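During the reporting period, we have paired protein sequences with backbone structure tokens. One record among many follows, to show the layout:
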Amino acid sequence: MSLPPTQADSRPGRWFFEPEVAFLILFVALAHFIRAGELPLRGEESTRGQMAFEMVQRNDYLVPRAQGEPFWIRPPFQMWAIAASCVALGDWSEWTIRLHSLLATLGTTLLVYGYARAFMGRVGALAAGLAFASSADWFQMGRQAETEALFTLLLGGALLLWHWGMERGWPGWACFAIGYSLMAMATLTKGLQAPVYFVGATWLYMIFNRDWKSLFSWGHLVGAAAGGAVLAAWVVPYAGAVGWGGVLQVWTGDPAYHVNGRISNWKAAEVGRHLLTLPAEIIAGGLPWSPLLLTVVSRDFRSSWGPRLGRIGYLWTCIAVALPSIWIPPGGLPRYFAPLMPCVAVLAGAGIEWIAARSPATGARRLQVVFAFFIAGLGLLMGLSPWLGAFQRLEAFAEPVSVALPWTVVLMALAVATAISSRQGGTRAMRVAVAAMATAMAIHFSVFVMDFRVRRSEKPALAMQRIKEALPQGQKLVSLGTYYLAPLFAYYYGLPITTRVPWPVKVGDLSPEIEYFCFEAHGPDIRPLPFAWKEIGKFPLDRYKREVPFSRVIVGRREKPG
């Protein structure tokens, strides 16, 4: 059977003015922006933020540095984005440091809608946009200052905009220039993952379709040159500053490359376990939308989409090229799949549209009922949460009744609205169901999960306040040890900690002029110092609260002799 005529090509070029776009903007603003600053920086967020801070402080945007020395782990594009946000707003708070990721989430959501709208109706495109913005994993990755959100916008943008332009008949040189330039920016964000995914997917797609004219065109050469120029704009002056050895090191300095790139490090048991668990982790991170991909691989779907099936094939090509590099190495993490989430979201949107058009009275109604039960389950969890405090291991999940009650009412109302709309059928009912599901996910992750994470998290700002109260105002610190001091401490301290000295083993190893110092400690033991000193305070580095912090920065004062 064939699907009814799609709305995809009606009013071409006008998709940005459709009401669904306004809803997506409002959804991302409410679901992602509002509480993005409540958690302290964690993971690599403080590293990115502190390096951006040092860029601005030193007025050196060429060489990423930590404590004044070149830091080889990543190229600088994300640090530029953080610095731009913080300088523009005059603020280095957690929310501002994460702003570039929030904007990237919004941009990718709109990109997914626009790309899907080129060959789908408004319901399918809305479902695609919401599937990206409201998937389980994206409520974490989309509002933290890690590389995933920006990397996904750039690499996902390269993959989708290249294909969008080729399908729409844009000039070939423009399609390739956009694709390769965004790929180059993604490379400057995270490294060599970007060219492997982009070149692999686009070249394989052209070869599979025997599009030799595009593959070997002058436009392709122009586009590749544009991408090379974007890379060279940073690489060449960077090489002049640190040498070509430094260029190689910044591309290969990420520990993930060393863990995943050496087959000799792999163990058969770990590889086997990873092959089994990673797909489940990716599917779980894409809930509640990822199961819809089963629809897209069905025979009925393939037989009904006609000429539009080529677009679906391109999305599967992108996933097929990327997946082995994540799935086979035992160190591959689900977040490495992030730049493919826009492709997954479009496929989910296609599944929604196909179900709504093929079987509005049965398939669509069943899906809406499933959505209603899922939302009701989230409402039940919220409603029961105040009683979780009775169990010691679950008390961090307990919500106050004043929070749980109104949100339970909202979630149950969404479930009822979805169930009622399922009886009416049509695109309006599917639109209600999709919007209700996304809204329920936003409430669950922005209230229940966020509150849980805030309760469990350490309070580094409070710990730093206590340390500063015990120090002379504006006191600069010297870090002991040859490796970089924890960026989390440096970020919350807010003053330069640019001096590093080797760990002293005898009294004369540390200049007598140094009175205040700091160092990292892990575990119960503290490495001895060859002089008398007094502890000023401890700064916890652990992500979650512990009675005794395992990892911490200790601030000390050297005692004067006599």
